[in-house]
Amino acid sequence: PKTGEVLLEVRSASRRFGGLLAVSELSFTLRAGEILGLIGPNGAGKSTMFNLISGVLPPSGGEILLGGQRIDHLGARRIARLGVARTFQHVKLFPEMTLLENAAMGAYLRAGAGMAASSLHLPAERAEEARILFEAQTQLDRVGLGDLAQTQAGNLPLGKQRILEIARALCADPSLLLLDEPAAGLRHLEKQELAALLRRLRAEGVTVLLVEHDMDLVMSLADRLVVMNYGQKLAEGTPREIQQNEKVLEAYLGG
Ligand code: ADP
Ligand code: MG
Q1: CA-CA distance, 97 to 143, in Å (whole number)?
Q2: Does residue 17 line the site of ligand 1, with CB under 6 A?
Q3: Does CATH place domain 1-83+175-255 in 3.90.180.10?
Q4: CA 44 / ligand 1 centre spacing (Å)
Q5: In the chain, is it the N or the C terminus that has fewer CB atoms within a 10 Å radius of its CB?
Q6: Does ligand 1 lie within 6 Å of residue 45's CB atom?
């Protein structure tokens, strides 16, 4: 979809864990080129919603559409290949591997699962490998980590590890980027660098669904916000509207 057109549509999605409704008939849309903030108290269902969109978990009910096509029940690998990339709430990098190798893992996802394990005997495989490494370097350059390509990921400060995770996600050439608490544990300056990167990516047309606890950060970044509480949608609107919403203030302060 072009900028401004509906990219993702969540229609009355639910997810049950035994007796718990972690996501309850949640509906929202995300337009191409926007940053949508998904916020809410701990346990509200935000990470579960990410798992439903990315196919890590099937929904118990409802529909999820990407570019008008239903993706619920497709499974994580096929959804990734359709252009949905994500980062996780807890950093999932290979600490012994270089930044370049870590970033390349994102490109393998798009190229096909066999590539990462392939023996590289065939010329076509070697060409694909070269293309993947080139893409990985390109995305490291894009996020400002290009000079560190040969450094071990585990040696990076957390702020740069989070940005590396974004570079890895970008290697899959996603139409939609799901970021689960990318600023958690970061220092003030690292948060500012992350915010600057996300603004730049938005200007380049990347669409982002952002779960973030740091209210200042998410309010300054998001075009719109969806607020969850107990699995349901509590409110939806611009940062200004959300900041003045009584129900939202109660959910955060009342609890
Ligand atoms: P948030 O990301 O908003 O903090 P989560 O989506 O992680 O919330 O969790 C929502 C609720 O669902 C919580 O009560 C959590 O304990 C529960 N939950 C999440 N994942 C699972 C799971 N795999 N099995 C059982 N309960 C889960
Ligand atoms: Mg979470």
Answers
A1: 18
A2: yes
A3: no
A4: 8
A5: C
A6: yes
